[in-house]
Amino acid sequence: xxxxxxxxxxxxxxxxxxxxxxxxxxxxxxxxxxxxxxxxxxxxxxxxxxxxxxxxxxxxxxxxxxxxxxxxxxxxxxxxxxxxxxxxxxxxxxxxxxxxxxxxxxxxxxxxxxxxxxxxxxxxxxxxxxxxxxxxxxxxxxxxxxxxxxxxxxxxxxxxxxxxxxxxxxxxxxxxxxxxxxxxxxxx
Length: 188
Known about the structure:
This protein has 11 helices and no strands.
């Protein structure tokens, strides 16, 4: 089956339209990664940090449910760089199964990791995290607060309306701007 797709996509690389050629190229890369997924998963546990970083970014592009296993493992057991990369990849995957892991990151201490988790939650678009996001604001980090507000807007949850309105009174113009945008995104 994959061979038929690859052959068709290779043909599409010669399409007259540049956007078709670009999409065919991107999809071919994805299929290559999918074919290598069993080997990636096998090698992941015993490889170096540098190799793990490459694998994490590849797993985010493959977009397969089995990609979540090493990503969740990385968030729970690895150093900060790997955690951030894994959290970002989870957002790229867009799988709601990652939501509990990403919400758990919000109780950690790393502002960068929290910001990435909030952005990934917004990308995934699963409203089950609305309550956790609303409880995480205000924080001691204005960048994190801004990211939370933007994700609340992406999630379009009317439940966040009062919080967003109150955010318009912030001293920080970035917070006020994000709140103004998010209010325009939530459901009517």
